[in-house]
């Protein structure tokens, strides 16, 4: 997605060889027009899949997941993050470490909002090591719903997350793929 690459070059801040700060467009501020374009792009790529529900994890995935759900005309459900998880027989949960925050959290999705006959599209902002994403994939699979695919705005190809998910046979669509952040420079893949 060329418009997104341009914005990343303009506004992304290479914080280290591993981390690209995208506060101006994903993680702090959101551009509604650009975000709706991202949603349209994901919706087009998954249009023929009869998606019934879009799922993400709070918080940074919500805006683009909303845009995608809006374009597909289906509900958006976002998994909640909990520091302490009260035993809830109705909730599906997974414990995941967070790469940027250095803490462990539980992500939780109520069975009320995901059903066996759902065809689910999972949307997220960035994939790095993929801990959060793998947790979300497990939750979707345990719900009995069919995971149609995973749409991610930024795939960091030099970290293992996306590869480990593709190896499970899950379709991933990335809007932008980043090959390297070495020397303070964003290098796109392909
Ligand atoms: P993930 O790949 O499945 O997201 O899991 P990982 O454990 O690798 O990353 C955990 C968190 O760190 C995610 O945010 C992810 O978006 C964020 N992250 C990883 N690499 C980068 C990066 O280069 N730049 C930025 N801006 N974020 C990065 P999160 O914990 O889910 O928090 P939130 O943003 O949704 O609140
Ligand atoms: Na996220
Ligand atoms: Na994030």
TrEMBL record:
Principal EC category: transferase
Protein name: Xanthine phosphoribosyltransferase
Species classification: Bacteria, Bacillati, Bacillota, Bacilli, Bacillales
Family: Belongs to the purine/pyrimidine phosphoribosyltransferase family. Xpt subfamily.
Residue intervals of the Phosphoribosyltransferase domain: 42-156
Pfam families xref list: Pribosyltran (PF00156)
Positions of 5-phospho-alpha-D-ribose 1-diphosphate binding: 128-132
A single GO molecular function term of this UniProt record: xanthine phosphoribosyltransferase activity
Pathway per the UniProt entry: Purine metabolism; XMP biosynthesis via salvage pathway; XMP from xanthine: step 1/1
Assembly and oligomerization: Homodimer.
Residue positions binding xanthine: 20, 27, 156
Compartment list: Cytoplasm
Domain of life: Bacteria
Catalysis performed (reactions): XMP + diphosphate = xanthine + 5-phospho-alpha-D-ribose 1-diphosphate
Main location group: cytoplasm
Native source organism of the sequence: Paenibacillus medicaginis
Keywords for this protein: Cytoplasm, Glycosyltransferase, Purine salvage, Transferase
E.C. designation(s): 2.4.2.22
Role played: Converts the preformed base xanthine, a product of nucleic acid breakdown, to xanthosine 5'-monophosphate (XMP), so it can be reused for RNA or DNA synthesis.
């Amino acid at each position: 997605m060329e418009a997104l690459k341009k914005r990343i070059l303009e506004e992304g801040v290479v914080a280290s060889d591993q981390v690209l700060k995208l506060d101006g467009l994903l993680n702090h501020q959101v551009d509604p027009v650009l975000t709706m374009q991202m949603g349209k792009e994901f919706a087009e790529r998954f249009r023929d899949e009869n998606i019934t529900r879009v799922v993400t994890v709070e918080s940074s995935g919500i805006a683009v997941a909303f845009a995608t759900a809006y374009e597909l005309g289906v509900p958006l459900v976002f998994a909640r993050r909990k520091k302490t998880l009260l035993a809830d027989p109705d909730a599906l949960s997974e414990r995941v470490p967070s790469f940027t925050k250095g803490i462990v959290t539980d992500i939780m999705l109520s069975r009320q909002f995901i059903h066996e006959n759902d065809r689910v599209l999972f949307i997220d902002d960035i994939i790095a090591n993929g801990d959060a994403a793998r947790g979300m994939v497990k939750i979707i699979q345990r719900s009995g719903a069919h995971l149609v695919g995973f749409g991610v705005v930024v795939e960091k190809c030099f970290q293992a997350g996306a590869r480990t998910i593709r190896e499970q046979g899950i379709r991933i669509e990335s809007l932008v793929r980043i090959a390297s952040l070495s020397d303070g420079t964003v290098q796109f893949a392909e």
